[in-house]
Amino acid sequence: MKVVRSPRQLQRILEEERLRKRTVGFVPTMGALHEGHLSLVKAADRENDITVVSIFVNPTQFGPGEDYAKYPRVLGADKRLLGKGKVDYLFCPSVRDIYPPGHATCVTVDGAMARVLCGKFRPGHFQGVATVVAKLLNIVGPCRLYLGAKDYQQAAIIRRFVEDLNMNARVRVMPTVREKDGLAMSSRNRYLGPAERRRALALSRALFELRRDILGKKGTLAFLKARAVRKLKDAVDRVQYFEIVDPVTLAPLKMVRREMVALTACFVGKTRLIDNVIISLR
Known about the structure:
By secondary structure, this protein is an alpha/beta fold. The chain has helices at 7-19, 35-47, 75-82, 95-98, 118-121, 125-140, 152-164, 194-215, 221-235, and strands at 2-4, 24-29, 50-55, 89-91, 143-148, 169-174, 238-245, 259-268, 271-280. α6 (125-140) crosses α7. The longest helix has 22 residues, at 194-215. The N and C termini lie far apart (42 Å).
C-alpha cells in the first residue's frame, strides 16, 4: 500500500494505471475506520484492478458545535486495518490540498433530497459532502465509487449529483455492516460509554421491528411509525427524526409502498447516531 499525499501525484499515478487498462475502485472515508469500511475495500478489490482509499476529515461538512475538532484521527490504526484488505493507494491529503487559499467554489445540492432528514438539522452539511466528493472524484478520475448504505441519504445525494453533473463514476452502495448485536458500525460508536452503547441498540431494534411489522401487515404506516418512535424515546436521549421515505427521492411516505426506507437519527448521551433499514415487499 503506497501512501500518497499530493493530489497531483495521485492523478499522475492513476492516469498511468488506466493507460495500462486497469480499472479503479475508490473508497472515500474520514478515517477512524472499522469493518464497515473494510467491506467497501473488499468490494472494490473484487470488482477492480486497483483500489484507492482516501482518508480526509472534511471540515466543510461539519456545522457549528459539531465534532470536527474531536473527530478521531487515528492514521496508524487505520493503516493496520487496511492491511487486512488489498489497498494499492492510500490518499491522505491535507486541508490545504483540498481547499487551497482563496478557495471559492462549492457544489450546491439544491433539491428536496438535501433539505429533509439530516439536511433539515445540519444546514450546509450536504453541500460540504458534495463538494469534497466532487473534488476527490476529479482527483481520482474515472472509477467505481463505493459507499455504505448506513449513510443512506448521503449515498442517495451523491448518486444524484454524480448523474446530474455527468461525472465519470459508477456509484456502488454496499449493505450496512453491523456488530453482532445489530448496532450499525460507525466511527462515532467509540464515543459511547458502556451504558450508552447498550441503549444505542434501540435504533436497530426499532427499525428491525418496524420492518417486520410492515411486512407482517400489523398496522398502518402511521401507527407503526408512532409505535417505533415511542419505543425509541424510552431508550435514547432524543429522537431527532424517524421517517419512512421513498428510496430514490427520499420523499416521506404515508402509505405502504413496495420499496421503502426507514431512517432515524437519535442522540445517545451527546453522540448523534444514524441508522436505517430498507423495506421491500417484493
